[in-house]
Amino acid sequence: MLLSVSFDKPLVIGFLPGFIYLVVLVIRKGVPLKILGDISMKGIKKTQTVILILLLVSFVLPSWYMSGTINQLVSISLHIITPEHFFLLTFIIAMFFSMILGTSVGTLSAVGIPIMSSALAINLSPEIVAGALISGAFVGDRTSPFSSSHQLLSHTVEVSGRKQLRAMSITTIFAIFIGMVFYGILDYQKEGKADYVTAFNLEQVSLIQFLPPLILIGTVIFRKGIIYAFVSSILVACLISLVRGKSISDLINSLVYGVDEMGGGLANMYLLLLFLALAGAYNGFLEEFNIIQPILDGWLIKSTTLVEDTVKTIAATFSISLIAANQTLPIILTGRTFLPHWSKNQTKESLTRVMGDSTMLFPGMIPWSVLAIMCSTIVGVPIMAYLPYSIFLWVLPILTIIVSVVKQKQQARANNLTEKRINIS
Q1: What pTM, to 2 d.p., does this model score?
Q2: Residue 357's domain spans which residues?
Q3: Closest CA relative to residue 153, chosen from 286, 25, 317, 336
Protein backbone atom coordinates (compact mmCIF):
# COMPACT_ATOMS: atom_id res chain seq x y z
CA MET A 1 0.00 0.00 0.00
CA LEU A 2 2.81 2.40 0.90
CA LEU A 3 4.57 1.67 -2.39
CA SER A 4 1.31 2.15 -4.26
CA VAL A 5 0.91 5.62 -2.73
CA SER A 6 4.59 6.50 -3.17
CA PHE A 7 4.55 5.71 -6.88
CA ASP A 8 1.07 7.19 -7.42
CA LYS A 9 -0.51 3.89 -8.41
CA PRO A 10 -4.14 2.85 -7.81
CA LEU A 11 -4.83 1.52 -4.32
CA VAL A 12 -6.14 -1.75 -5.69
CA ILE A 13 -2.68 -2.52 -7.13
CA GLY A 14 -1.01 -2.06 -3.77
CA PHE A 15 -3.75 -4.01 -2.01
CA LEU A 16 -3.83 -6.98 -4.41
CA PRO A 17 -0.55 -8.72 -3.34
CA GLY A 18 -1.67 -8.84 0.30
CA PHE A 19 -5.10 -10.08 -0.71
CA ILE A 20 -3.61 -12.83 -2.89
CA TYR A 21 -1.18 -13.81 -0.12
CA LEU A 22 -4.07 -14.14 2.34
CA VAL A 23 -6.00 -16.31 -0.12
CA VAL A 24 -2.94 -18.56 -0.55
CA LEU A 25 -2.58 -18.94 3.22
CA VAL A 26 -6.23 -19.93 3.53
CA ILE A 27 -5.98 -22.43 0.64
CA ARG A 28 -2.97 -24.04 2.35
CA LYS A 29 -5.27 -24.74 5.30
CA GLY A 30 -7.32 -26.94 2.98
CA VAL A 31 -10.30 -24.64 2.43
CA PRO A 32 -12.10 -25.43 -0.89
CA LEU A 33 -12.24 -22.75 -3.56
CA LYS A 34 -16.05 -22.79 -3.55
CA ILE A 35 -16.11 -21.89 0.15
CA LEU A 36 -13.54 -19.15 -0.52
CA GLY A 37 -15.83 -17.74 -3.20
CA ASP A 38 -18.83 -17.83 -0.88
CA ILE A 39 -16.90 -16.07 1.89
CA SER A 40 -15.68 -13.42 -0.57
CA MET A 41 -19.22 -12.72 -1.78
CA LYS A 42 -20.46 -12.56 1.80
CA GLY A 43 -17.81 -9.95 2.59
CA ILE A 44 -18.58 -7.96 -0.56
CA LYS A 45 -22.31 -7.97 0.20
CA LYS A 46 -21.57 -6.19 3.50
CA THR A 47 -20.18 -3.25 1.52
CA GLN A 48 -22.47 -3.41 -1.53
CA THR A 49 -24.67 -0.55 -0.31
CA VAL A 50 -21.64 1.68 0.15
CA ILE A 51 -20.29 0.63 -3.25
CA LEU A 52 -23.57 1.67 -4.85
CA ILE A 53 -23.59 4.97 -2.96
CA LEU A 54 -19.99 5.64 -3.99
CA LEU A 55 -20.92 4.86 -7.59
CA LEU A 56 -23.75 7.40 -7.43
CA VAL A 57 -21.48 9.97 -5.76
CA SER A 58 -19.25 9.81 -8.84
CA PHE A 59 -22.20 11.15 -10.88
CA VAL A 60 -23.31 13.89 -8.46
CA LEU A 61 -20.61 16.50 -9.05
CA PRO A 62 -20.59 16.23 -12.89
CA SER A 63 -24.40 16.35 -13.13
CA TRP A 64 -24.62 19.30 -10.73
CA TYR A 65 -21.86 21.10 -12.61
CA MET A 66 -23.53 20.61 -16.00
CA SER A 67 -26.86 21.84 -14.59
CA GLY A 68 -25.22 25.04 -13.26
CA THR A 69 -25.94 24.14 -9.63
CA ILE A 70 -22.30 24.09 -8.51
CA ASN A 71 -21.46 27.44 -10.14
CA GLN A 72 -24.49 29.07 -8.55
CA LEU A 73 -23.66 27.72 -5.10
CA VAL A 74 -20.03 28.76 -5.45
CA SER A 75 -20.79 32.31 -6.67
CA ILE A 76 -23.25 32.88 -3.82
CA SER A 77 -20.78 31.58 -1.24
CA LEU A 78 -17.88 33.67 -2.55
CA HIS A 79 -20.12 36.74 -2.66
CA ILE A 80 -20.61 36.40 1.11
CA ILE A 81 -16.91 36.29 2.07
CA THR A 82 -15.34 39.47 3.42
CA PRO A 83 -11.62 40.02 4.24
CA GLU A 84 -12.39 40.89 7.89
CA HIS A 85 -13.84 37.42 8.54
CA PHE A 86 -12.16 35.47 5.74
CA PHE A 87 -10.90 32.50 7.79
CA LEU A 88 -14.14 32.05 9.71
CA LEU A 89 -16.36 32.37 6.63
CA THR A 90 -14.10 29.99 4.70
CA PHE A 91 -14.61 27.37 7.41
CA ILE A 92 -18.39 27.92 7.45
CA ILE A 93 -18.78 27.82 3.66
CA ALA A 94 -16.63 24.68 3.34
CA MET A 95 -18.69 23.11 6.12
CA PHE A 96 -21.94 24.03 4.36
CA PHE A 97 -20.81 22.58 1.03
CA SER A 98 -19.43 19.41 2.61
CA MET A 99 -22.68 18.74 4.44
CA ILE A 100 -24.52 18.95 1.10
CA LEU A 101 -21.98 17.10 -1.05
CA GLY A 102 -20.82 14.63 1.60
CA THR A 103 -17.25 14.58 0.30
CA SER A 104 -14.14 16.49 1.34
CA VAL A 105 -12.50 16.20 -2.10
CA GLY A 106 -15.67 17.36 -3.88
CA THR A 107 -16.04 20.29 -1.50
CA LEU A 108 -12.45 21.39 -1.96
CA SER A 109 -12.82 21.02 -5.71
CA ALA A 110 -15.94 23.21 -5.72
CA VAL A 111 -14.89 26.03 -3.38
CA GLY A 112 -11.26 25.37 -2.47
CA ILE A 113 -9.61 26.59 -5.66
CA PRO A 114 -11.51 29.91 -5.99
CA ILE A 115 -11.23 30.68 -2.26
CA MET A 116 -7.49 29.95 -2.24
CA SER A 117 -7.07 32.19 -5.29
CA SER A 118 -8.94 35.00 -3.54
CA ALA A 119 -6.84 34.56 -0.38
CA LEU A 120 -3.59 34.76 -2.32
CA ALA A 121 -4.82 37.86 -4.17
CA ILE A 122 -5.21 39.76 -0.89
CA ASN A 123 -2.07 38.30 0.74
CA LEU A 124 -3.74 36.13 3.35
CA SER A 125 -1.89 33.15 4.82
CA PRO A 126 -2.45 30.19 2.46
CA GLU A 127 -1.71 27.75 5.31
CA ILE A 128 -4.51 29.13 7.49
CA VAL A 129 -7.00 29.34 4.62
CA ALA A 130 -6.13 25.77 3.59
CA GLY A 131 -6.55 24.65 7.21
CA ALA A 132 -9.99 26.29 7.39
CA LEU A 133 -11.02 24.69 4.09
CA ILE A 134 -9.83 21.22 5.16
CA SER A 135 -11.56 21.52 8.54
CA GLY A 136 -14.84 22.57 6.96
CA ALA A 137 -14.58 19.91 4.27
CA PHE A 138 -14.12 17.15 6.84
CA VAL A 139 -17.20 18.21 8.81
CA GLY A 140 -19.39 16.84 6.04
CA ASP A 141 -17.01 14.04 5.02
CA ARG A 142 -17.39 12.67 8.56
CA THR A 143 -20.90 13.82 9.51
CA SER A 144 -23.08 14.28 6.43
CA PRO A 145 -25.64 11.50 5.79
CA PHE A 146 -24.69 11.89 2.11
CA SER A 147 -21.08 10.89 2.83
CA SER A 148 -20.04 7.44 1.64
CA SER A 149 -17.58 7.07 4.54
CA HIS A 150 -20.33 8.05 7.00
CA GLN A 151 -22.55 5.37 5.47
CA LEU A 152 -19.69 2.86 5.51
CA LEU A 153 -19.14 3.43 9.24
CA SER A 154 -22.86 3.06 9.94
CA HIS A 155 -23.05 -0.28 8.10
CA THR A 156 -19.75 -1.56 9.50
CA VAL A 157 -20.64 -0.88 13.14
CA GLU A 158 -24.27 -1.93 12.56
CA VAL A 159 -25.74 1.33 13.88
CA SER A 160 -28.55 3.18 12.11
CA GLY A 161 -27.77 6.54 10.53
CA ARG A 162 -29.96 8.38 13.03
CA LYS A 163 -28.30 6.75 16.06
CA GLN A 164 -24.88 7.41 14.58
CA LEU A 165 -25.63 11.12 14.12
CA ARG A 166 -26.96 11.30 17.67
CA ALA A 167 -23.86 9.54 19.05
CA MET A 168 -21.56 11.95 17.19
CA SER A 169 -23.58 15.08 17.97
CA ILE A 170 -21.92 16.16 21.22
CA THR A 171 -18.34 16.04 19.92
CA THR A 172 -19.43 17.49 16.56
CA ILE A 173 -21.06 20.52 18.18
CA PHE A 174 -18.06 21.21 20.42
CA ALA A 175 -15.58 20.74 17.55
CA ILE A 176 -17.48 23.13 15.27
CA PHE A 177 -17.74 25.69 18.07
CA ILE A 178 -14.01 25.41 18.83
CA GLY A 179 -13.27 25.75 15.11
CA MET A 180 -15.38 28.90 14.78
CA VAL A 181 -13.69 30.47 17.83
CA PHE A 182 -10.26 29.42 16.53
CA TYR A 183 -10.72 30.96 13.07
CA GLY A 184 -12.47 33.99 14.55
CA ILE A 185 -9.41 34.67 16.72
CA LEU A 186 -7.09 34.22 13.74
CA ASP A 187 -9.23 36.73 11.80
CA TYR A 188 -9.00 39.19 14.67
CA GLN A 189 -5.22 38.81 14.96
CA LYS A 190 -4.36 39.19 11.28
CA GLU A 191 -2.97 42.47 10.07
CA GLY A 192 -5.04 44.82 7.91
CA LYS A 193 -5.15 43.93 4.26
CA ALA A 194 -5.75 45.80 1.04
CA ASP A 195 -9.26 46.46 -0.14
CA TYR A 196 -10.95 43.29 -1.23
CA VAL A 197 -12.26 43.30 -4.76
CA THR A 198 -14.11 40.11 -5.53
CA ALA A 199 -13.65 38.50 -8.90
CA PHE A 200 -16.87 36.60 -8.46
CA ASN A 201 -20.13 38.34 -9.29
CA LEU A 202 -23.38 37.11 -7.80
CA GLU A 203 -25.37 35.56 -10.62
CA GLN A 204 -29.10 35.77 -10.77
CA VAL A 205 -30.41 33.13 -8.42
CA SER A 206 -32.38 30.42 -10.19
CA LEU A 207 -34.65 28.18 -8.15
CA ILE A 208 -34.48 25.53 -10.87
CA GLN A 209 -30.72 25.19 -10.44
CA PHE A 210 -31.27 24.68 -6.70
CA LEU A 211 -33.54 21.70 -7.34
CA PRO A 212 -30.82 18.97 -7.33
CA PRO A 213 -29.54 19.72 -3.78
CA LEU A 214 -33.06 20.49 -2.54
CA ILE A 215 -34.33 17.14 -3.86
CA LEU A 216 -31.33 15.34 -2.38
CA ILE A 217 -31.84 16.88 1.06
CA GLY A 218 -35.64 16.65 0.97
CA THR A 219 -35.67 12.99 -0.05
CA VAL A 220 -33.40 12.07 2.86
CA ILE A 221 -35.43 14.16 5.32
CA PHE A 222 -38.61 12.34 4.28
CA ARG A 223 -36.81 8.99 4.76
CA LYS A 224 -37.05 7.76 1.18
CA GLY A 225 -33.56 6.29 1.29
CA ILE A 226 -30.11 7.68 0.49
CA ILE A 227 -29.83 5.74 -2.79
CA TYR A 228 -33.21 7.00 -4.00
CA ALA A 229 -32.13 10.51 -3.00
CA PHE A 230 -28.95 10.36 -5.08
CA VAL A 231 -30.70 8.87 -8.09
CA SER A 232 -33.47 11.51 -8.01
CA SER A 233 -31.02 14.38 -7.66
CA ILE A 234 -28.79 13.13 -10.47
CA LEU A 235 -31.71 12.58 -12.85
CA VAL A 236 -33.12 16.07 -12.16
CA ALA A 237 -29.68 17.63 -12.64
CA CYS A 238 -29.27 15.80 -15.96
CA LEU A 239 -32.70 17.00 -17.11
CA ILE A 240 -31.83 20.61 -16.18
CA SER A 241 -28.56 20.26 -18.11
CA LEU A 242 -30.42 19.22 -21.25
CA VAL A 243 -32.93 22.06 -20.84
CA ARG A 244 -30.00 24.51 -20.54
CA GLY A 245 -28.77 23.37 -23.94
CA LYS A 246 -26.12 20.82 -22.99
CA SER A 247 -25.84 17.99 -25.49
CA ILE A 248 -26.41 14.39 -24.49
CA SER A 249 -22.86 13.50 -25.56
CA ASP A 250 -21.35 16.24 -23.36
CA LEU A 251 -23.49 15.12 -20.42
CA ILE A 252 -22.51 11.47 -20.82
CA ASN A 253 -18.87 12.45 -21.24
CA SER A 254 -18.92 14.43 -17.95
CA LEU A 255 -20.64 11.58 -16.09
CA VAL A 256 -18.05 9.09 -17.32
CA TYR A 257 -14.87 11.19 -17.18
CA GLY A 258 -15.81 13.91 -14.69
CA VAL A 259 -15.26 17.64 -14.99
CA ASP A 260 -11.88 19.38 -15.27
CA GLU A 261 -10.66 20.64 -11.88
CA MET A 262 -13.87 19.33 -10.31
CA GLY A 263 -13.43 15.57 -10.33
CA GLY A 264 -16.17 12.98 -10.22
CA GLY A 265 -16.99 10.64 -13.06
CA LEU A 266 -17.10 6.87 -13.26
CA ALA A 267 -13.63 6.66 -14.83
CA ASN A 268 -12.13 8.26 -11.71
CA MET A 269 -14.05 5.97 -9.38
CA TYR A 270 -14.14 2.42 -10.75
CA LEU A 271 -10.73 1.43 -9.34
CA LEU A 272 -11.80 2.69 -5.92
CA LEU A 273 -15.02 0.66 -6.24
CA LEU A 274 -12.93 -2.41 -7.10
CA PHE A 275 -10.70 -1.72 -4.11
CA LEU A 276 -13.75 -1.40 -1.85
CA ALA A 277 -15.08 -4.75 -3.11
CA LEU A 278 -11.70 -6.41 -2.51
CA ALA A 279 -11.53 -4.85 0.96
CA GLY A 280 -14.95 -6.32 1.71
CA ALA A 281 -13.82 -9.78 0.55
CA TYR A 282 -10.56 -9.39 2.49
CA ASN A 283 -12.49 -8.52 5.63
CA GLY A 284 -14.71 -11.55 5.01
CA PHE A 285 -11.64 -13.78 5.26
CA LEU A 286 -10.38 -11.96 8.36
CA GLU A 287 -13.71 -12.46 10.09
CA GLU A 288 -14.45 -16.01 8.92
CA PHE A 289 -11.02 -17.41 9.79
CA ASN A 290 -10.47 -15.22 12.86
CA ILE A 291 -7.11 -13.96 11.60
CA ILE A 292 -6.73 -10.50 13.13
CA GLN A 293 -9.34 -10.85 15.86
CA PRO A 294 -7.02 -12.61 18.39
CA ILE A 295 -4.36 -9.90 18.01
CA LEU A 296 -6.78 -7.04 18.51
CA ASP A 297 -8.73 -8.89 21.19
CA GLY A 298 -5.47 -9.33 23.05
CA TRP A 299 -5.07 -5.58 22.78
CA LEU A 300 -8.49 -4.95 24.36
CA ILE A 301 -8.85 -8.03 26.57
CA LYS A 302 -7.61 -6.30 29.73
CA SER A 303 -9.69 -3.18 29.09
CA THR A 304 -12.62 -2.95 31.46
CA THR A 305 -13.52 0.73 31.28
CA LEU A 306 -14.86 3.03 28.59
CA VAL A 307 -11.78 5.27 28.75
CA GLU A 308 -9.39 2.34 28.28
CA ASP A 309 -11.41 1.01 25.36
CA THR A 310 -11.51 4.50 23.81
CA VAL A 311 -7.75 5.15 24.07
CA LYS A 312 -6.81 1.68 22.86
CA THR A 313 -9.25 1.80 19.96
CA ILE A 314 -7.88 5.18 18.86
CA ALA A 315 -4.31 3.84 19.09
CA ALA A 316 -5.21 0.73 17.08
CA THR A 317 -7.13 2.59 14.38
CA PHE A 318 -4.28 5.10 14.04
CA SER A 319 -1.84 2.23 13.49
CA ILE A 320 -4.14 0.69 10.88
CA SER A 321 -4.49 4.11 9.18
CA LEU A 322 -0.70 4.43 8.98
CA ILE A 323 -0.51 1.09 7.17
CA ALA A 324 -3.64 1.35 5.04
CA ALA A 325 -2.98 4.88 3.72
CA ASN A 326 -6.67 5.35 2.96
CA GLN A 327 -9.98 5.94 4.74
CA THR A 328 -11.93 2.84 3.78
CA LEU A 329 -9.81 -0.03 5.12
CA PRO A 330 -9.35 1.37 8.66
CA ILE A 331 -13.13 1.79 8.98
CA ILE A 332 -13.79 -1.79 7.87
CA LEU A 333 -11.00 -3.46 9.86
CA THR A 334 -11.42 -1.45 13.08
CA GLY A 335 -15.20 -1.54 13.04
CA ARG A 336 -15.71 -5.22 12.26
CA THR A 337 -12.89 -6.39 14.54
CA PHE A 338 -13.73 -4.30 17.61
CA LEU A 339 -17.51 -4.55 17.25
CA PRO A 340 -17.90 -7.75 19.35
CA HIS A 341 -15.87 -6.32 22.25
CA TRP A 342 -17.68 -2.99 22.26
CA SER A 343 -21.09 -4.64 21.88
CA LYS A 344 -20.37 -6.81 24.91
CA ASN A 345 -18.61 -4.32 27.21
CA GLN A 346 -19.84 -0.89 26.06
CA THR A 347 -22.29 0.10 23.30
CA LYS A 348 -22.20 0.21 19.50
CA GLU A 349 -23.10 3.91 19.67
CA SER A 350 -19.98 4.63 21.74
CA LEU A 351 -17.85 2.76 19.20
CA THR A 352 -19.29 4.73 16.28
CA ARG A 353 -18.58 7.98 18.16
CA VAL A 354 -14.96 7.01 18.88
CA MET A 355 -14.37 5.87 15.30
CA GLY A 356 -16.13 8.91 13.87
CA ASP A 357 -13.81 11.10 15.91
CA SER A 358 -10.63 9.24 14.96
CA THR A 359 -10.80 6.62 12.19
CA MET A 360 -12.56 8.95 9.75
CA LEU A 361 -10.13 11.81 10.39
CA PHE A 362 -6.68 10.22 10.63
CA PRO A 363 -6.46 9.70 6.82
CA GLY A 364 -6.67 13.48 6.47
CA MET A 365 -3.63 13.93 8.72
CA ILE A 366 -1.27 11.19 7.53
CA PRO A 367 1.09 12.60 4.85
CA TRP A 368 1.09 9.46 2.71
CA SER A 369 -2.65 8.93 2.93
CA VAL A 370 -4.32 9.17 -0.46
CA LEU A 371 -7.09 11.36 0.93
CA ALA A 372 -4.63 13.80 2.50
CA ILE A 373 -2.57 13.93 -0.69
CA MET A 374 -5.66 14.74 -2.76
CA CYS A 375 -6.72 17.48 -0.35
CA SER A 376 -3.21 18.94 -0.29
CA THR A 377 -3.00 18.91 -4.09
CA ILE A 378 -6.32 20.73 -4.51
CA VAL A 379 -5.51 23.56 -2.07
CA GLY A 380 -1.87 23.72 -3.18
CA VAL A 381 -0.45 23.66 0.35
CA PRO A 382 1.73 20.89 1.91
CA ILE A 383 -0.05 18.69 4.45
CA MET A 384 2.25 19.47 7.36
CA ALA A 385 1.93 23.20 6.63
CA TYR A 386 -1.87 23.35 6.93
CA LEU A 387 -2.31 20.61 9.54
CA PRO A 388 -1.78 22.89 12.59
CA TYR A 389 -4.66 25.04 11.33
CA SER A 390 -6.98 22.10 10.52
CA ILE A 391 -8.31 22.14 14.05
CA PHE A 392 -11.42 20.06 13.34
CA LEU A 393 -9.24 17.05 12.47
CA TRP A 394 -7.05 16.92 15.56
CA VAL A 395 -9.36 18.29 18.24
CA LEU A 396 -11.98 15.54 17.83
CA PRO A 397 -9.81 12.64 19.10
CA ILE A 398 -9.12 14.74 22.21
CA LEU A 399 -12.80 15.60 22.64
CA THR A 400 -13.94 11.99 22.30
CA ILE A 401 -11.54 10.91 25.06
CA ILE A 402 -12.91 13.69 27.29
CA VAL A 403 -16.49 12.58 26.55
CA SER A 404 -15.57 9.00 27.45
CA VAL A 405 -14.06 10.18 30.75
CA VAL A 406 -17.22 12.15 31.59
CA LYS A 407 -19.52 9.26 30.63
CA GLN A 408 -17.46 6.83 32.70
CA LYS A 409 -17.68 9.08 35.76
CA GLN A 410 -21.43 9.49 35.27
CA GLN A 411 -21.84 5.72 35.05
CA ALA A 412 -19.73 5.21 38.18
CA ARG A 413 -21.88 7.75 40.05
CA ALA A 414 -25.06 6.04 38.89
CA ASN A 415 -23.72 2.64 40.00
CA ASN A 416 -22.80 4.03 43.42
CA LEU A 417 -26.29 5.48 43.88
CA THR A 418 -27.83 2.16 42.88
CA GLU A 419 -25.66 0.28 45.39
CA LYS A 420 -26.58 2.71 48.17
CA ARG A 421 -30.28 2.28 47.47
CA ILE A 422 -29.89 -1.50 47.52
CA ASN A 423 -28.00 -1.34 50.83
CA ILE A 424 -30.64 0.95 52.36
CA SER A 425 -33.39 -1.39 51.22
Answers
A1: 0.69
A2: 2-6+44-408
A3: 336
